[in-house]
Amino acid sequence: MTLSMQIRTLLASSSLLLVSAVGLAAGAQERQEPRLPEVAPHSPSGIFGARHELAISSDAGLSISTTSVSGVSGSTTTLVLRPAIDYFVIDNLSLGGFIGVDSTSNDGGSSTTFGIGPRVGYNVPFSERWSVWPKVGFSFSSSSVKIKGTTLGGIRTSDATTSNTALALNLFVPVMFHPVEHFFLGFGPALDTDLSGDAKVTTFAGRLTLGGWI
């Protein structure tokens, strides 16, 4: 075999190996890439989140939470009412805003917080009646905290009231159930943490949301 024939044979073999390697890598990549299940486009979950839909909801009810206030932790029960409006600017991408009232009470006292702010969300359907709709936003809040007086050595201290304003980060990741068209309810973890203010408050909670869309 001449030298030129050997070179052509070597180039042909190298090309074949390269094509085979590329094919194997592409096949492995296709196998490794996770894919969301197909959702019927006319199902309650498939319809929700379409462009130009307007969702009206409220994060409401009782939430059991663990709260850290400037390093002091404790368990509380919080009543939350947060009506909100979200508009889907494109399929599954929502822009909206909410106003809220959080009322918290425990053995040491009580607090009331009023907040308002914008948020952005993205809906991901994964079955005909289920989706997940994570939302993140910022809010400006004003809080009033009442601390009950204590009795020490027969002496009763008076109650104390403080106020605080803060800019907060809000994160809510509910798993949504769509029983019928135009109605939904969901439940998931929520995080509210102050980014400013004198007494920074961080709250982790499980929160319920319910509403409808037009």
Task: Please give the structural blueprint.
Layout: H1 3-32, H2 44-47, E1 54-69, E2 72-90, E3 93-106, E4 109-122, E5 124-125, E6 130-132, E7 135-147, E8 151-152, E9 155-156, E10 160-172, E11 175-177, E12 183-194, E13 201-213
Antiparallel strand pairs: 1-2, 1-13, 2-3, 3-4, 4-7, 5-6, 6-11, 7-10, 8-9, 10-12, 11-12, 12-13
H/E element order:
HHEEEEEEEEEEEEE
Number of helices: 2
- Multimeric organization: single chain
**How much helicity do the residues have?**
10-25%
Shape: elongated
CATH architectural grouping of the largest domain: Beta Barrel
- Strand tally: 13
* Tally of distinct domains: 2
Secondary-structure-derived class: alpha+beta
Could you give the distance between the termini?
78 Å
Nearest-angstrom radius of gyration? 27 Å
The averaged pLDDT comes out at: 79
Return the CATH class of the largest domain.
Mainly Beta
Key structural traits:
single chain; 214 residues; alpha+beta; 2 helices; Porin
Describe this structure in words.
The protein is of the alpha+beta class and 214 residues long. The chain has two domains: 1-35; 44-213, Porin (Beta Barrel), CATH 2.40.160. Helix content is 16%, strand content 59%. The protein has two helices and 13 strands. The protein has helices spanning 3-32, 44-47; strands at residues 54-69, 72-90, 93-106, 109-122, 124-125, 130-132, 135-147, 151-152, 155-156, 160-172, 175-177, 183-194, 201-213. Strands 1-2-3-4-7-10-12-13 form an eight-stranded antiparallel barrel. A hairpin with a 6-residue loop joins strand 12 and strand 13. It is elongated, with a radius of gyration of 27 Å. The mean pLDDT is 79.
